[in-house]
Amino acid sequence: MKRDKALMADILKTLSTFGTSYGDIEKIQTNLTIQDNTPPELIQHHLRLLHDRGLVAVDIHQFWRLTDQGYDVVESGNNLADTTLPDAPQKARGFDN
Questions:
Q1: For 5-81, CATH number?
Q2: Report field, pTM of the whole predicted structure over 0.85
């Protein structure tokens, strides 16, 4: 499956509109701005790619939110090319508690 940076940016923008609430796949799918009828599996795959970059976090109930780095990307115009993982080792990203 190819990654779609436009979809990744749209997911970030969509999550940023949720404010303090988290979003599940269905809520994200319903609120996407540029994608019509995007399959849930495709959204899930791209959320995992965003999670790999540290831009989103997920809780044990599969509700997603932006991280601080995710907000930085949204505020910079959703430029995913500027997001690189830091050189220093990070603690493992898991579920929010």
A1: 1.10.10.10
A2: no
